[in-house]
Task: structure prediction
Amino acid sequence: MAAKASNPDGTWYAGDIDRLVVTEDEIKQRTAELAKQVAADYADRDGLLLVGVLKGAIMFMADFSRALGLPVALEFMAVSSYGQGATSSGTVRILKDLDGDISGKHVIVIEDIIDSGLTLSWLLKYLASRGPASVEVVALLRKPDAVKVDVPVRYIGFDIPNEFVVGYGLDYAERYRELPYVGVLKPEVYTRA
Result:
């Protein structure tokens, strides 16, 4: 079987993407703006800890942490409320917990997308129970029309339509994460039997 040719711009998925929602350049610019804002807000605080929510936030967290310009520690959690579906189930499971103690630290949760808000609401309560000095959220994307639970999020990159999006860390069935942009996945891709 022949290997697929390398295609770093993701055009092998082009037939699956209906349209772009956020371009690669827009992501770079907004990530830099968010990092500058957070750096100003946290310039006088020690013990800054970024907690990336796996797997979707990995691309955003890497770019954000480099743009931040402050000394930070990195931690990761994996929680699931989607499974293989296109909508949140509302039931949260911890797949990977934090490795270290967060008590007394200023925690910034790095999220790829806020959809219903159910998972993030649960996660914030869970982290608060572990005694951090503070907990804030930096989210690349938010779907205001999908929110079921109002979650206070101080830093938001983009508000987007309530459509199924992939790219820049977001996936469907573990595909599309490596795309450098965020695009709407054609419904026929995720409704195939």
